[in-house]
């Protein structure tokens, strides 16, 4: 199982993601085989090395015959369900196109089945979606973390006329996930296409800055546009969680020298130190029932952690300070959540240094229920084992047992590994 981080700080499109996957080592033949199984007409993939700004990148040209056919979601679904595809690829591609159809239907006020995809229904876009899905399935990723998505600015010409950026379908697809116009210097153009937005929101298991990982491959993907002075490309980093021991399946304990066990080289995974930001605001005029939802929104926007502290303000007013620990790449998106989800009109910001122990996830069984446990190490010894509470609560409900007993049993089982 691998961990994948997608850097969408220059936006995303289907062909950019396709190029990034090929650049990261996914065989073109694997992608072409999946596309050939779906496409009703010949499709040829031509990979080439290009430059985008200061970056060398991979572009995959999708060559198809000229066609004026505009397929509906029903047409595309029939192509996918009737194709000789591996089931995980088919299921993922169906989810991407369904997400697109629902978004386009909501934007135009029609049922998803009646949506004419126009550009999205063309053969090259079908190839992009199916090819990207096949590529990600081949990576066997247990986690796909996506950075906040740059959408661009200005206007774009589409089948429905001139639209503001982000186009309505992109804005709808990215609802609830971190996005922003782009960093200073970004050209005034569409950076994230509907296809790119549908792929990212379907593939992502979480959103944020690059996680702690050991990278084994990097792919830089380019599309057809090459704006002057900007590296218009998507990066895909493929690897594993730092400290993961994929060769031995992940069992470990506090004694690395214990005979008969396989342990990762913990000395190679020293504690890390990194600079992050703390954003915070004192709020005395917000219904406290809204605070948990605001914290959830901060986390969804890319905050590494978020919390609230009761305080007493001037004139004896009870209030709360809402805090968010944020990587710099997510600061703009998190700051926006403060203004949209709370009543504050000002946000403080300061740098902090975070020291993090190497950590590893393992799985234990309690009464046949699987529970994930997070372990942290210091100087080769396990100093903290914490079962994931959502798993504990689910297992307790399934077993009809008190959660406190399931928690204790899960922790004991982890200590025995």
TrEMBL record:
Its EC number is 4.99.1.12. Pfam families: Ni_insertion (PF01969). InterPro entries: Ni_insertion. It comes from the Bacteria. It is an enzyme of class 4 (lyase). It catalyses: Ni(II)-pyridinium-3,5-bisthiocarboxylate mononucleotide = pyridinium-3,5-bisthiocarboxylate mononucleotide + Ni(2+). Keywords: Lyase, Nickel. Involved in the biosynthesis of a nickel-pincer cofactor ((SCS)Ni(II) pincer complex). Binds Ni(2+), and functions in nickel delivery to pyridinium-3,5-bisthiocarboxylic acid mononucleotide (P2TMN), to form the mature cofactor. Is thus probably required for the activation of nickel-pincer cofactor-dependent enzymes. Belongs to the LarC family. This is Pyridinium-3,5-bisthiocarboxylic acid mononucleotide nickel insertion protein. It comes from Nocardioides luteus.
